[in-house]
Amino acid sequence: MVRKILIIGAGGIGSYLIDTLDNLTGNGTHDSGLYEITVSDPDTVETKNITYQRFSADDVGKNKALVMKNRYNMVVSGSKYPIMVEDQLTGYDLVVCCVDNLHTRRMLYRANVEEIKWLDLRSQGRNAALVSYKAEPSTYDTLLAGPEGSFSCQGDSWNGSTEGIHFMHSVIAGVGAQWMQRWFAGESVNPFMVVNV
User: Fold this and answer.
1) Is CATH 3.40.50.720 what the domain over 3-196 is classified as, yes or no?
2) Around 193, how many Cα atoms within 13 Å sit in the side-chain half-sphere?
3) Which helix (H) or strand (E) holds 181?
């Protein structure tokens, strides 16, 4: 049975998650065909992204979602349009948030969980977290607090160079992929996890 997944954000976390799940989509030499992935990300690849995201110099200036779509031979479909309303979240077995955008997170956390099952993967510097629709709703206010805007997976102290790169984005992408495997298999999963280094 193919599971339909929407991944919102193809940057630091999303690009690693897509790369990890690609082995299970039936693409390339693997033939499991477990996932059909749709990616949404309106951002374009910048030179600074190459140091900590799954992009190369040839991708600079291109839309991130479309790069993922082309890289993974049409198994991953892409949309360069942002997720703005809850209706865009329906029709998927799981919606995975990999963006640094509080508007999108707030919409997801407040969605009807009978219709929309979600997983939020987040990282900043030396910290990362996994939050699912199964988490205690009383924690949402704390998780959704903060200023509007974008926040790098690298945290505020990163100077944009190749020195001092943090890898928590790839860690939480791997944890998220494992969570998804277990969840889809009907196994017990942790609704909320924090990783600190």
Assistant:
1) yes
2) 16
3) helix 168-184
